[in-house]
Amino acid sequence: MTASDLTKSFVSSQGSRFWGKKRVFALKNANIEIKPGEKIGLIGRSGSGKSTLIRCLAKLIEPDSGKMHFKGVDVTSLPARQFRGYRKYLQVIFQNNYSALNPGMKIREMLNETARLGGYSQGLDELAKEQMHKVSLSESLLERYPRELSGGECRRIGVAMVDLIGPELLLADEPVTALDYINKYEMLSLFKRLNKEKGTALLFATHDLEAMTDFVERVIVLYGGTIVEEIPIESLWGARHPHTVELVRYHGFLKNKFTDDALASYNNESKDRIVDITNSGCVYAGQCQRYRILGKPSACTEEQPQLKRIDIDHSVACYFADKVVE
């Protein structure tokens, strides 16, 4: 799948009483390519646009502008009825997968129906039992309704259903969030097996950098609805965008160059911490310690920097990308 210049905005309910509601961009000019069988991590703070990007790619919401191509077809403005034929090739798993399950059907019924969509016609009950074993769930759960399952069990059922279809692309939105270590490890193992056995490409959105370090091949970093860095997972220690550096440092993988006196001064001073920038300025300038330490360069508030390739498969959207690594 490829997407170019995807933009999505929403009307905020927290507008001024004088000026009314305002439009907020959840995604701005995002470009992404997911190759067959590729495993990509999607990281960023809450509200960075990860879920919006996944929902746009899955055509669960329509972007304001931009283009999307899937299986060689421009699906951007394809009506829901026509896109339905592509659904078996593109599947989604959410953090709260309960909402994706039919509350009026038992788990057995949902697995049987999914198997039919996947091309199976015989031995559906036995196949359903086999799927339960694959995702480490008891066969007794087949006779239950989604409301009788835990959140983790609903996610596993979602994986079992995806496995029956064998999609070409799986979009996973925080699938391991709030899971304990054992459940997280088993979920990741299921994704790895799906990728290895079915050749399914994965876009894996997560806050948990540790969960993806031995799973994905490259990482896309979002901030303020903008892709600010694309980097191979093995080069994550060499992150160049200050937001990526912050995320990685938070998880203990990288030390920022600006540590000693300069960083201490920055952390202790709250004045001008948030910078009022125009819509065309860098989305991260208001939070960027590099911007502050370098004397607030005007370039950062004049125009959003474009992704620029600095190494093989490594691109960063920062005017001062060379000021990070030690």
Task: Describe the 3D structure.
The chain is α/β, with parallel strands linked by helices and 326 residues long. It folds into 2 domains: 34-65 and 80-216, Rossmann fold; 226-323, no CATH class. It has 11 helices and 12 strands. The protein has helices at 50-57, 80-83, 107-117, 124-134, 151-165, 181-198, 209-212, 242-250, 261-268, 289-293, 299-302; strands at 2-11, 23-33, 39-43, 65-70, 73-74, 90-93, 169-173, 201-205, 218-223, 226-232, 308-311, 314-316. The strands form 2 sheets. Strands 6-7-8-3-9-10-12-11 form an 8-stranded mixed β-sheet, sandwiched between helices. Helix 3 (107-117) runs parallel beside helix 5 (151-165). The longest helix has 18 residues, at 181-198. It is globular, with a radius of gyration of 22 Å. It starts with a strand and ends in a 10-residue tail after the last strand.
Secondary structure: helix percent: 25-40%
Task: Summarize model confidence as the mean pLDDT.
Answer: 86
Query: Largest sheet, order of strands side by side?
Result: 6-7-8-3-9-10-12-11
Which CATH architecture of the largest domain?
A: 3-Layer(aba) Sandwich
- Count of extended strands: 12
Q: CATH superfamily of the largest domain, called what?
A: P-loop containing nucleotide triphosphate hydrolases
> What is the makeup of the main sheet?
8 strands, mixed
Strand content: 15-25%
Q: State the end-to-end distance.
A: 36 Å
CATH class of the largest domain: Alpha Beta
- One letter per element, helices H and strands E, the order comes to EEEHEEHEHHHEHEHEEHHHHEE
Helical run tally: 11
Structural class: alpha/beta
Tally of structural domains:
2
Radius of gyration: 22 Å
The general outline is globular
